[in-house]
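WARN no homologs supplied; continuing
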Amino acid sequence: MRKPWEITIVAALLVFILVASISVDGFATGRNWGFLLLDLAPIALIALPMTLIVIAGEIDLSVASILGLSSAIMGQLWLAGLSLQLIVVLVPLIGALLGAVNGLFVTRFGLPSLAVTIGTLALYRGLAFVVLGDRAVADFPFGWTGGSIRTIPGTPIPWAVLLIAVLAGVFALVLHFTPIGRGLYAIGNNAEAAAYAGISVGRTKFWLYVVSGAVSALAGILWTLRYASARADNGTGLELQVVAAVLLGGVSIFGGRGTLAGVLAGVLLLGTVRNALQLADVSTDTLTVVTGVLLILSVVAPALTRLTPRLRKASP
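OK structure emitted
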């Protein structure tokens, strides 16, 4: 089946990379691409479960706050004397519990996911400051912090990209080649009909939020090690970039439509645009505006793409 919007995004990505390589100094260097991929790592990671959640007709705006709270917990546990080996096991489990809270309110109490996750966005960020305050924990072992930014020998590609590639393969397999994935599309198109077809709608959505929390916590670990600093404000505002990338990749905000390949292309397009503008000394405020414009475009343009053929058929 043709995926016109996903094809458009990939084409736009390739064209933009070509134009930026010619017109923006330093864009095409291996060093810049290494930093670009590191910047995109937490966004791409969180976008994986976010894709499944949006396809199922829900949303999770608490992901960046879970990242920040996970970073704060990581710093506090390190100060308490726990080993990093144990910390990197405990933190995703805590993230899963935070996601379970979201899932519980959405599925058990039937509350709108938008309202719930806006609330936990604020709650989890506040808890991050309760856990760590405004301090920064920065004395992590260099073997861990240096390893988080180390690249594959002979390439500018960080090792963290391999982790994301493996997880992306797992999520793609689940979404596109298993009954679970087919159930997610069914839920997003019509949850009531999916329930009549025997799909456990509530249970499926609950576990999506659990996975989202665990993956967001994993992104918090990567963020903390990459910058060698555990802070309560880590990842602030990242949820906007994640949602923009997911929608830009062709996932319908109303659920029931989208592909993981399109989302990864959306992540790369959003990241390369922001990176090129940063190299061109564009202000942070302008970058936020650009992200907002791309977010609006990602909602409007796919609908127009699907509507155009219908209008042509209807025209005399």
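The chain has one domain: 4-17+26-304.
OK
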